[in-house]
Amino acid sequence: IVTASPSVGLYPSGTVLWVRADTGVTTNADGTVSQWNDLSSFGNNLLSYNSVSQPRLVANAHGNPVLHFTGTNSLYGNILYANNAPSLGIISNMSIFAVVNFTLGGGTNGEIVSKTGATTDTPAHGNQPGPFDYNCGASSINYLRGNGTGVNANFPSSTAPSVGWTHLLDVVQAGTTVTHRLDGNTNRTGTLSTTILDAGQPLYVGSRSDLVNRLTGDIVELIVMGSDVSSNDVASMENYLAAGHTVPIGTNTYPAITQQPVASTNVS
Prior knowledge:
By secondary structure, this protein is mainly β. The chain has one helix at residues 231-245; strands at residues 2-4, 15-20, 25-27, 33-36, 46-47, 56-61, 64-69, 80-82, 94-102, 110-117, 128-136, 141-146, 152-156, 166-174, 177-182, 185-191, 203-205, 217-225, 265-267. Strands 2, 6, 7, 9, 14, 15, 16 and 18 form an 8-stranded antiparallel beta sheet that branches. A 6-stranded antiparallel beta sheet has the order 8-17-10-11-12-13, with no helix packed on it. A hairpin with a 5-residue loop joins strand 12 and strand 13 (152-156). It starts with a strand and ends with a strand. The model is unreliable at 1-8 and 259-268 (pLDDT under 50).
């Protein structure tokens, strides 16, 4: 088992989940991932249900360490979860930043991160955003908010990222205003208004809790914030992610956020 101890960097307040493929990943002998440590102060570590649902750590894919998710693997696809926690029940403003490489095939979707409500017939699973679902479809990046029991709204982006390339996606909600961005460029701004409540279910990465929407592709880094982010901080976050993962974006004059060096690496 290889475990890299987490290191907390400097980043905007409100971060409730922060995972990087080069830090805090616990692997089995075959490279499958049993735990992905949250680098935020909340310790919302991502775990796996069983060995057949674990993604795989790839040391160098597209120039980056990645967690590779295969949506067609077993009945589950590859999926990680964080236990339900108050910090993850974001019912107001929020921001998500993700560096992802999609391979949309095999009937799978580009599921990134979600917290969805259960249903009466499947009490452990559900497909209703409660309070959020962030995924990529064939024609758009979808940002859904809702109450977990059927009241919801989706604000899709204008375009979807190309397949087979590493992209930087981010979305910010401030009040009812939502702004999608793709590779440093605005990808639609508009209004989303609905009832937003936390359904009290775990957070999932790589598959929605109903196991229908899944991810086939790679996650390099994922940051979820329980607050909106200013345009200046968005620019700094994008600079940090683009520089760290060789993602081409438009240039801007804002300084990148910084991360402290990894404290240590333990091998057992």
